[in-house]
Amino acid sequence: MKSIFLPSTDNPVLDWLEFFAFLVLLGLVIAGLIVWMKVIHGSKTKRKRKRRRHHRHTNPTLAEAGGLPPVRDPNEPPPGP
Asked: DSSP states of 47-62 as a string?
């Protein structure tokens, strides 16, 4: 019984051409997805990044915090709990 939708070919050259055309089409789809991810989708990600404010310091330097504590007397014992 013959198929209505798919013509059968007995020529192996046509079978290879159909297979090659399928591979080319598949490659174009994959290349299109890669271009979409890098160009279109990648540019949206860059805009969403938050920039850190430069005037905020998480750990201030000693000069910003008021410098070193005063020099302790060597005869005085260290402070304890």
From this structure: HHPPPPPTT--SS--H
Say if CB 9 and CB 15 are below 8 A apart.
yes
- Does this model's pTM top 0.90? no
Q: Which residues fall within 8 angstroms of residue 57, CB to CB, at 6 or more apart?
A: 64
Q: Cα separations (Å) of 58 from 26, 38, 53, 67, 68?
A: 51, 35, 11, 17, 19
Q: Name the stretches of the chain with pLDDT < 70.
A: 1-9, 41-57
Structure tokens at 49: 């990044």
